[in-house]
Amino acid sequence: MMSLPKKVTIKEVGPRDGLQNEKQMIKTEDKIEWINMLSETGLSYIEITSFVNPKWIPQLADAIQVAKSIKRKSDITYAALVPNERGLEGALAANMDEVAVFMSASETHNLKNINKSISDTYPVLKPVIQEGIAAGKSVRGYVSTVFGCPYEGNVSIDSVLAVSDKLFSYGIEELSFGDTIGVANPKQVEVVLTEVLKRFPKERIAMHFHNTRGTALANVLVALNLGITNFDSALGGLGGCPYAPGASGNLATDDLHYMLEGMGIETGLKRKELIHSARFLEEKLGKALPSHTMQTERSKISN
């Protein structure tokens, strides 16, 4: 018998991780309206943007304007990704509730994504984390390519644990383990998480699955059975990594919600509002979102 949690926290990353790889530029006012709609879905956490150099991710060049213009709710954590101290300055100026730092478990992906080796990344992130905490913000970490790298293939668990140890030692509150290119399978998730949970409390671990090969929900099920209750996802299955060739969208928030609620696991999310928000985004992107939920909704309309 599986031992499943009674409640799960779904962390919406669509406005950042979802939009960052979209070629269709979304107007600032539409991003603001979409995030405001997401705030009505029952989510308790929304990652709204990234304070990176606009030349790297033009889609998120309006980070400060978006962050300052959304209608915030007191029971929602509004977060942003920051690459360095300059990014942190922007996030603090925009009064983000939480900042997130990121790096990879594989050298080549880290070089492509951050333009630094793993060892050279630590001195950049350490002050960001500590200054963020000193400013009264919670700080989250992302480690990418945990289950496989587009350039190196398999990534050793030792590399994953070494990066994790460093980030936790700097003071992060939570670490999100990313299946950046969607190669993980349930057995692999079990093996990696078993080792991770020997070192770190399950309450401080989140999983960030991509659905490139259709295994994201199966991987979630394994993580649930091991006691994980924090999951990143993007509405409609939006997104992918600009530095991970072949990576398709994130695990879809709407599909994850459907599965969890059907299993009697509380999420706090409202299905009607999720679908309404996803339809708004489809209109602004000018394309259909790939989630199974949205495919089903479209078939209802066509029939």
TrEMBL record:
Gene3D superfamilies attached to this UniProt entry: Aldolase class I
Any one GO molecular function term: hydroxymethylglutaryl-CoA lyase activity
GO biological process: ketone body biosynthetic process; L-leucine catabolic process
UniProt-listed CDD domains: DRE_TIM_HMGL (cd07938)
Ranges where the Pyruvate carboxyltransferase domain occurs: 8-275
Keywords: Lyase, Metal-binding
PANTHER family linked to this entry: HYDROXYMETHYLGLUTARYL-COA LYASE
Protein family: Belongs to the HMG-CoA lyase family.
Protein name (record): Hydroxymethylglutaryl-CoA lyase
Source species of the chain: Robertmurraya kyonggiensis
